[in-house]
């Protein structure tokens, strides 16, 4: 059984770049080649798992990953048993509402 710390990170998308930058600023020597889904950290007993953002909460809940970096909205919407340890201050979510062009006008009443 491996005692390596398993860190789940988005394999692509808005959070990947900032998360990888944060991990490197923490001193982790990460050498990722294109399309790798799992890499070992060179100078620390850890592995980085590159996953779809929607899969990260389940990997953490099931113990496959020890920690995951994911948008708070994804964590909440997953309905998994998780603890948000820290809000990192990067990555933003936008809510958009779309309707058909020829629909009747809607009035918002206060």
Brief write-up:
By secondary structure, the chain is an alpha/beta fold.
Itemize the secondary structure elements and their pairings.
Layout: E1 5-10, H1 14-25, E2 38-40, E3 46-51, H2 56-61, E4 67-68, H3 72-77
Parallel strand pairs: 1-3, 1-4
Antiparallel strand pairs: 2-3
Explain what you see.
By secondary structure, this protein is an alpha/beta fold. It has helices spanning about 15-25, 55-60, 70-75, and strands spanning about 5-10, 40, 45-50, 65-70. Strands 2-3-1-4 form a four-stranded mixed sheet. The chain starts with a strand and ends in a 33-residue tail after the last helix. The model has no long low-confidence stretch (mean pLDDT about 85).
Protein traits:
4 strands; 110 residues
Trace the largest sheet across and list its strands.
Answer: 2-3-1-4
Instruction: Give the oligomeric state.
Output: single chain
Which class of secondary structure composition applies to the elements? alpha/beta
Rg over CA atoms: 18 Å
Residues in helix, %: 10-25%
Largest sheet: 4 strands, mixed
**Rough shape?**
elongated
Overall mean pLDDT = 85
Euclidean distance between termini CA atoms: 59 Å
Low-confidence stretches: none
SSE order, as H and E?
Answer: EHEEHEH
Q: Given the structure, what is the number of helices?
A: 3
């Amino acid at each position: 059984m491996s005692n390596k710390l398993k860190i789940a990170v988005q394999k692509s998308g808005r959070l990947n770049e900032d998360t990888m930058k944060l991990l490197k600023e923490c001193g982790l020597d990460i050498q990722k080649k294109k399309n790798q889904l799992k890499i070992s950290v060179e100078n620390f007993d850890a592995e980085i798992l590159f996953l779809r953002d929607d899969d990260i909460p389940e990997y953490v809940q099931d113990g496959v990953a020890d920690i995951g970096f994911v948008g708070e909205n994804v964590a909440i919407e997953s309905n998994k048993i998780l603890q948000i340890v820290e809000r990192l201050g990067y990555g933003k979510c936008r809510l958009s509402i779309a309707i058909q062009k020829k629909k009747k006008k809607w009035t918002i009443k206060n």
